[in-house]
Amino acid sequence: MIREAGPPDGPALASLLRRSPQAGRLVLAQDRTPDFFARRRQLDDHVTLLAEGPGGPDATATVGTKLVEVDGRPVTAAYVLDVAVAAEARRRGRARALLEACHTWAEARGAEIAYAHVMAGNEPSLGTFGRSGYRVATGVRVAVALPRGRGRPPGGARPASQWSDGEWDRAAGLLASAGAGHDLRRVLDGPGLRALWTRLAGWDPATVWCTDRAVLGLWDHSAVSRAELVEPLPLDARVLRAVTAGLGRARLRLPLVPDLGRPLHYGVTLGGAGDPHDLGVLLRAALAAARARGLHVVMMPSDARRRPRWVRRLAVASDHLHVVVRPLSGSAAAGALGRRPLWPDPLDL
Q1: Does 171 share its domain with 129?
Q2: In this structure, are 193 and 211 located in the same domain?
Q3: How many CB atoms neighbour CB 192 within 10 A?
Q4: What is the count of structural domains for the chain?
Q5: Residue 27: what are its φ and ψ, rounded to 5°?
Q6: Is residue 335, in this structure, part of any structural domain at all?
Q7: 9-53, pLDDT tens digit by residue?
Q8: Against a cut of 0.85, is the pTM above it?
Q9: What values do phi and psi take at 187, rounded to 5?
Q10: DSSP assignment of 187-224
Q11: CATH code at 63?
Q12: What is the pLDDT of residues 241-275, one digit of tens each?
């Protein structure tokens, strides 16, 4: 039986996600105990579905809609997230049935495409989406930077706590200009951007800045989700941990990569549009804010084929996400996705 989940189901669904880790280069379990439903609230409309087993929910999927640009025109897209099936319930069609229910829900709300992110190396998930009519359209590179103790916004930078309506319009304009010619860019004006960012769990307007030429800030994601390492780190991550440990002993105060079973607290960059010089300075300020908050890493998504230089200069590692897409309602938009560069939505992370 598939039914809509509500607040009382939150603890059981958080437990289900923890027991269904994402397996890519890193094997990570999601800790969603703060508020299981917080992540979906960045979507315009949304629903969480679950399948009931003998001992309670044994599979779940969430879907929500948003207005994005694909192939140069506005399209209502359905973003599918939090697909999880308990080990004892796999190979019984649970995931496919939930995805079909998500598609039916989304089509009733005018969605033309459905898309999702799958970690590189997660072959079971790619197979599940493939059997449900999805194809790999393009990719997202998630660069990872370490928080650092120094960095401040450039002179004249204004935190979002001080933005006027005109500055929200400027920030939205910078994002629209930088995202022109890219797919999956959200279609937002100033009031829409303000409504979106200020409803994020963990939103702090003091750590998002706008200059006359750029907008960028830090979103502390730990109020929405944390990650836990399930298997030992690969070699490159172990080397990174050894290096940061050595720098820590040299009193540079860099955070350490956590061990198995310890929560990984991370931040995500918001904005990231405008003048590259200003963006580089603002990114350093965001990393300093992350250090003050005790975050382990900061993640910066970009098109897999076009990583900005201001990101490359401060990144210490990166990972790859596949973007899988399926047409809905007979639309041709899904076939066009991937021809143009991608403007990844940081809120999808």
Answers
A1: no
A2: yes
A3: 15
A4: 2
A5: -105, 110
A6: no
A7: 999 999 999 888 876 656 678 889 989 999 999 999 999 999 998
A8: yes
A9: -95, 100
A10: ---HHHHHHHHHTSTT--GGGEEE-SSEEEEEEEGGGT
A11: 3.40.630.30
A12: 555 555 444 343 444 455 656 778 999 999 999 99
Q: Residue with structure tokens 């996705």?
A: 337
Backbone angles phi, psi at 152, to 5 degrees: -145, 155
Domain encompassing residue 47? 2-138+325-330
Looking at residue 245, its pLDDT comes to 52
Task: Give the C-alpha separation, 242 to 236, whole Å.
Answer: 10
Q: What contacts 24+ positions apart, CB below 8 Å, involve 108-112?
A: 109/45, 109/65, 109/76, 109/78, 110/65, 110/76, 110/329, 111/65, 111/76, 111/77, 111/78, 111/328, 111/329, 112/70, 112/75, 112/76, 112/77, 112/327, 112/328, 112/329, 112/331, 112/333, 112/334
The segments of the chain whose pLDDT lies below 70 read 23-27, 230-261
- Give the tokens for residue 193: 């951007």
Contact 31, 263 (CB under 8 A): yes
How many residues are recorded in the chain?
349
Q: Tell me whether residue 246 is in a domain.
A: no
Question: Do 201 and 169 fall into the same domain?
Answer: yes
pLDDT of residue 254: 41
The torsion of the CA quartet 328, 6, 187, 168, rounded to 10 degrees, works out to 180
